[in-house]
Known about the structure:
The structure holds 2 protein chains of 2 kinds. By secondary structure, chain A is mostly helical.
Amino acid sequence: MPMNSFLGVFAKSPLKPLEDHINLVYKCGQGLLPFFEAVYAEDWKEAQDTQQIISKLEKDADVIKRELRVSLPTGIFMPIQRQDVLDLLTQQDKIANKAKDISGRVLGRQLTIPQALRSSFMDYLKRCLDATDQAKKVINELDDLLETGFKGRELRLVEDMIERLDAIEDDTDTLQVSLRRNLLALEKDLNPVDVMFLYSIIEWVGELADISERVGSRLELMLAN
Amino acid sequence: MDIITSYGFILIVVAAAVGFLMAWGIGANDVANAMGTSVGSKALTIKQAIFIAMIFEFAGAYLAGGEVTSTIRKGIIDSAYFIDTPELLVFGMISALLAAGIWLAFASYLGWPVSTTHSIVGAIVGFAAVGVSADAVEWGKVGGIVGSWIITPAISGFIAYLIFQSAQKLIFDTDNPFANAKKYVPFYMAAAGFVMALVTIKKGLKHVGLDIPADQGYFMALGLAVLVGIAGKLFINRIKIDPKAQKEAQFANVEKVFAVLMVVTACCMAFAHGSNDVANAIGPLAAVVSIVESGGEIGKKAALVWWILPLGGIGIVAGLALFGHRVIKTIGKGITHLTPSRGFAAELAAATTVVIASGTGLPISTTQTLVGAVLGVGMARGIAALNLGVVRNIVVSWVITLPAGAGLSIVFFFMIKGIFAP
């Protein structure tokens, strides 16, 4: 029997895939922790395995991204702008891409982190991943935001969470400055090419937090509509 | 005149059979739209939905279907044109039924969500305007009916918007949504009960032979509303929730309360649907029967024959019982992200609009009203995603239905006329 129903009016919600996507992206970022542990131990076999996991998660996230894009034709009516949803998705996806790039670059050059920097680099990485964690939490509030019609208490709660995300990003900036200063002090004893790559890795790790913050501000704009 | 006296019984049997089939079709196909929101939001299982639909569709048809039946039976056509040739009206009504029935079967086969109301009104206007004379149609009233098709979805959307906003204010946007849901949801139930009871008492019961004075009617409706509210409260208190539930799980518990409310609004929806749509099947039949029974006289005063409303009600229930299960299952599958708190707002708004229209005798489309209500909730930023392409298709199918019903009914009219009165 063919569908003879007005229920076709209800389209697939974009919120659930957005949440699924950021959860995968978050896991992808978390993969950097075991990866850098392997790098610290200079166990390149293990590093390669963990890099594979990161790369696989990034691919999975890409699949969700593509499905969501396809399922959002222009004739869709949502409480949030279609363009905002797509922009948010693009930003989220950049986190996973960045995590993959970082691990790929470090593995490709078998780039070791100087002993003196290791503990502060790990702190810095963890703080940046805190930012992705916060972005994940914010996006996972979308369900509840829908329940409350994108306003009221729940909206204020999310705005507070986004503020916290900004604070975490500020932290990572401070950590990045001190990490760079420490690297500067070590520069003369290191291979100059490695130094250049270390600077770029530090910058990329910082971008994890930057993009997470951008996810938050995209969402903020989306809610301001 | 001779035709009616000699073929009277056959004509009634034919009209009753076609009318019953039409009611059957409404039950099998159309009810799915009325119940779909409840099944889709997982507030009811398919079995429960069928059970509720059977009871309340029949109740709605029998208790509140009279006014719309009168409109279809004698409101669209100016009977002055048929005083000398009552058999033409009989043929016409039978052709209208046949035309609407065949158009619905065809549309269902193709999967178009057409409206039974539109097809029958189109069919009646068609045979009268082309088969008899353009002046035989009460264009003023037809204009009013068609106008109501544009206005009722808007009204229903507006009501849905308000209901949804009120639920947001009272329940969702508070410190303790669950406690507030328990507190306020019984009032929504009582409101649903009040509207249903009031329309039945004020407008419906006189067709069943009961006449209740106005002030008494209000009291009875109020009493029933309070009863519904109390019963709802008792059910809500029985909901088991995890007391340790974190704040994140709060809304899930709130939705459980709304699921109970949806049982009431589903009853309301089935009642509303029965009260409005039964007329599409039995309005023409009622016209045929009253002409034949009076021996060819078209009496405006004639009351509805007692067996007609129950026949329509039974037809709907029979259709539901045989095919409703399958249809509701098909539509229940594809739906996502319609939570009871949204479904309830849409259903309550649509049911209220339809029941009030039934009370005033306006034949409107239940599905159309429901779509209006859903869009209203969407406007309040309550639904994750609505497919406007589908809305457009639905609107197009409604517009096509009018000329299609009219054309078919003209063809049948001349065929039947040819058979009985060469």
